[in-house]
């Protein structure tokens, strides 16, 4: 096992072990905070010549897919370019024992094939801290037995990297496409091309310094790329300038380096950032709105806007962490660009619709039906995906007294497990100067302690007792999602019996209608089918005869679950009729309705904790993977956060589905989406959605440092994720997704 050392230009050394190629190399040292996507990142041309430090500690778990696999457009399917562009990879820990259906080799063997060295056993947290404090530095990887002085530092930003990353001859993709788009390749990623082709465009890719005649195309696309935009792309800037100044107006869309080049062509300036933005969780606010998007980024330079923009140009997006520019748009012409990567790969897919917006604009100009791009962008990016009931903007100013249904008595599935979320909700209400009334029969809880709630009733959480409290206290609002299933069931009964309406007590946060859908299996399945998503095949039954008939239809083995049950009470698997009869008989003692599911035993079980505000901002705070396969109840299973064996494709597919589901259901606050993921191919089912704080929420809060219950309570008052502060930094906004440099395990 050979040793190797990363030496920085300030003389500091980080020693570790070599994996991949045993090769000396040099470059600028940068860190990236993404928790998945090492294959996509390493093949991103924007990392050309850089020594890439991954802050997530366990790398290589899902191996490397077939890098030569092609899609229907002749593009490489699983990697972003033809080779690894990073000069070296630095990680805390790496494994040869990968676990994924799509993997064909380990990360180490793949690096070796491309003659790229890797170092593991490095204190990447200390290294990242140094880079954050001092800014990016030059470095070199020196293999044991080599004289460090024989390896020189190299600053790739002083070279013209276009000659390394751009194609040499023009090439056409999807020749049958209806819209003809010219693309200037400054380090183009495959997924940018793929999305344009999938949306029906014919794309002609040109080398970075190739002149592009405007009259031959319907629109111009500017790709991402590495390096300093001011020093290496004069020919590209000249081409963009000619399109911007032409009397014939045709749409232009730029990404990353393409954004910077568009800005330079329009007369703006760029500057090098201290350490750049590289990761998958950068919040970008759409100018003039409350809509914030989680984006994937990889850049060391940014457009300068502090001194204002040229006439006719406006800021489109602003980074909510460092307030750097993330997008510009022309006020009247169809020119716009973004600093982040809407094509993702790796990272979230929240802004992929920018490609569709671009092609819509191209189509409108082609048919002489021109639109105002700035207005169209704002309209499309703020369009709500759901007409679900959300609290009106002024709701928080009208709430003076709130009733909180607490964690309940000592029963499995409630009590102490929900004491955490209820306590956080009370703190959030107190901060907003709202009088809190708590109902909780359990004196052995933190939330009933003196000094938290303004008034505590030690009463059972049942409709009869809660109605008495509502009648006497007359609260403006009620919080249902902080006391587990008991509180949720009670809230639904209060609504259905008309008690809440009778006393004008508003449900804060997620509407009752959404809760009812998530609690009714058939309604939920129909709601998911409306958006093209599948739930595990399941039937609701009310008797033993119905259960037997259902099992025959679904096919054994089946899972029996009691509806509206606490902590999986009365559930179990049956492989045949003989095992089903006693199981159903027992379960019917706990609930009048049972759920018979087709068994997905052995599949991976994955959960996503999702937060949504009334402005339709959605974030995924944490995802978790059960070490045990599906079939072990989450409460008893060993759970690891974040997931360990999901590739970037799976992680972000399920993330996108989670957000789609939460928006469609109209949830406001926090919820938990659970999936069954096939370990043998790309296939998944939605198991269920908990429209409340769950036990997993408490784990996610402590695993990430993100106070889910506290934030959910504030959102229930009508506040925005952009308006709320990040409790960890107290400087940035709460609209962000924690990126961990550690792993949390719950046993």
Automatic annotation (TrEMBL):
GO function terms (MF aspect): aspartate carbamoyltransferase activity; ATP binding; carbamoyl-phosphate synthase (ammonia) activity; carbamoyl-phosphate synthase (glutamine-hydrolyzing) activity; dihydroorotase activity; metal ion binding
Domain ATP-grasp intervals: 525-717
InterPro entries: ATP-grasp (IPR011761), CarbamoylP_synth_ssu (IPR006274), CarbamoylP_synth_ssu_N (IPR002474), CarbP_synth_ssu_N_sf (IPR036480), Class_I_gatase-like (IPR029062), CPAse_ATP-bd (IPR005479), CPSase_dom (IPR005483), CPSase_GATase1 (IPR035686)
One cellular component (GO) term of this entry: cytosol
Sequence intervals crossing the membrane: none
GO biological process: 'de novo' pyrimidine nucleobase biosynthetic process; citrulline biosynthetic process; glutamine metabolic process; UTP biosynthetic process
PROSITE patterns hit by this protein: ATP_GRASP, CPSASE_1, CPSASE_2, GATASE_TYPE_1
Catalytic activity: hydrogencarbonate + NH4(+) + 2 ATP = carbamoyl phosphate + 2 ADP + phosphate + 2 H(+)
Keywords carried by this UniProt record: ATP-binding, Ligase, Metal-binding, Nucleotide-binding, Repeat
Protein name listed in UniProt: ATP-grasp domain-containing protein
Organism from which the protein derives: Adineta ricciae (Rotifer)
């Amino acid at each position: 096992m050979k040793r190797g050392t990363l030496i920085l230009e300030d003389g500091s050394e980080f020693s570790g072990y070599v994996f991949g190629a045993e090769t000396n190399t040099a470059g600028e040292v940068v860190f990236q905070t993404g928790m998945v996507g090492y294959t996509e990142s390493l093949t991103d041309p924007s990392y050309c010549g850089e020594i890439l430090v991954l802050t997530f500690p366990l790398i290589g778990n899902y191996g490397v897919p077939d890098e030569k696999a092609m899609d229907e457009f002749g593009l490489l399917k699983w990697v972003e370019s033809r080779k690894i562009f990073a000069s070296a990879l630095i990680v805390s820990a790496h494994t040869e024992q990968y676990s994924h259906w799509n993997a064909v080799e380990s990360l180490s063997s793949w690096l070796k094939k491309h003659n790229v060295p890797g170092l593991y056993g490095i204190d990447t947290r200390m290294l990242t801290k140094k880079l954050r404090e001092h800014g990016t530095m030059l470095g070199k990887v020196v293999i044991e037995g080599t004289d460090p002085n024989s390896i020189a530092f190299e600053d790739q930003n002083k070279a013209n990297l276009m000659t390394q990353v751009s194609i040499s001859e023009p090439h056409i993709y999807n020749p049958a496409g209806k819209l003809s788009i010219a693309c200037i390749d400054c380090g183009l990623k495959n997924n940018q091309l793929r999305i344009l082709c999938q949306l029906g465009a014919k794309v002609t890719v040109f080398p970075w310094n190739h002149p592009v005649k405007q009259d031959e195309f319907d629109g111009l696309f500017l790709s991402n790329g590495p390096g300093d935009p001011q020093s290496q792309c004069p020919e590209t800037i000249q081409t963009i300038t000619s399109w911007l100044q032409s009397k014939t107006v045709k749409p232009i869309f730029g990404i990353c380096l393409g954004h910077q080049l568009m800005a330079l062509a329009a007369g703006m300036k760029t500057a090098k950032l201290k350490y750049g933005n590289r990761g998958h969780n950068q919040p970008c606010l759409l100018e003039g709105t409350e809509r914030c998007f989680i984006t994937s980024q990889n850049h060391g330079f940014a457009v300068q806007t502090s001194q204002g923009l040229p006439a006719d140009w406006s800021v489109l997006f602003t980074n909510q962490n460092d307030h750097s520019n993330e997008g510009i748009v022309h006020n009247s012409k169809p020119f716009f660009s973004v600093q982040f990567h809407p094509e993702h790969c790796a990272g979230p897919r929240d802004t992929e619709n920018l490609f569709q917006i671009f092609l819509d604009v191209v189509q409108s100009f082609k048919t002489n039906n021109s639109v105002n791009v700035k207005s169209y962008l704002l309209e499309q990016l703020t369009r709500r995906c759901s007409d679900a009931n959300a609290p009106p903007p002024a709701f928080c100013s009208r709430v003076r007294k709130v009733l909180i249904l607490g964690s309940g008595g000592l029963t499995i599935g409630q009590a102490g497990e929900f004491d955490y979320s209820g306590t956080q909700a009370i703190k959030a209400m107190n901060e907003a100067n709202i009088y809190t009334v708590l109902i909780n029969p359990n004196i052995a809880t933190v939330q009933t302690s003196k000094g938290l709630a303004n008034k505590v009733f030690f009463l059972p959480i049942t409709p009869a007792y809660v109605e008495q409290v509502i009648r006497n206290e007359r609260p403006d609002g009620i919080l249902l999602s902080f006391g587990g299933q008991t509180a949720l069931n009670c809230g639904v009964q209060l609504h259905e019996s008309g008690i809440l309406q009778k006393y004008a007590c508003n449900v804060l946060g997620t509407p009752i209608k959404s809760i009812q859908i998530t609690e009714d299996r058939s309604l939920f399945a129909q709601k998911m089918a409306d958006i093209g998503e599948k739930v595990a095949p399941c039937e609701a039954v009310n008797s033993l005869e119905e259960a037997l008939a259902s099992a025959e239809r679904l096919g054994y083995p089946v899972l029996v679950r009691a509806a509206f049950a606490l902590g999986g009470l009365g559930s179990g698997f049956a492989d045949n009729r003989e095992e089903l009869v006693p199981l159903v008989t027992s379960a019917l003692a706990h609930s009048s309705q049972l759920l018979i599911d087709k068994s997905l035993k052995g599949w991976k079980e994955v959960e996503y904790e999702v937060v949504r505000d009334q402005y339709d901002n959605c974030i995924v705070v944490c995802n978790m993977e059960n070490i045990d396969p599906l079939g072990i109840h989450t409460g008893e299973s060993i759970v690891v956060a974040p997931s360990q064996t999901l590739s970037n494709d799976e992680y972000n597919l399920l993330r996108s589905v989670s957000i789609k589901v939460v928006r469609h259901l109209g949830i406001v606050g926090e919820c938990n989406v659970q999936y069954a993921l096939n370990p043998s191919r790309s296939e998944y089912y939605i198991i269920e959605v908990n429209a409340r704080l769950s036990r997993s929420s408490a784990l996610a809060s402590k695993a990430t440092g993100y106070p889910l219950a506290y934030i959910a309570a504030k959102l229930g008052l009508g506040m925005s994720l952009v308006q709320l502060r990040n409790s960890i930094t107290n400087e940035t906004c709460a609209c962000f997704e924690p990126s961990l440099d550690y792993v949390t395990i719950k046993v």
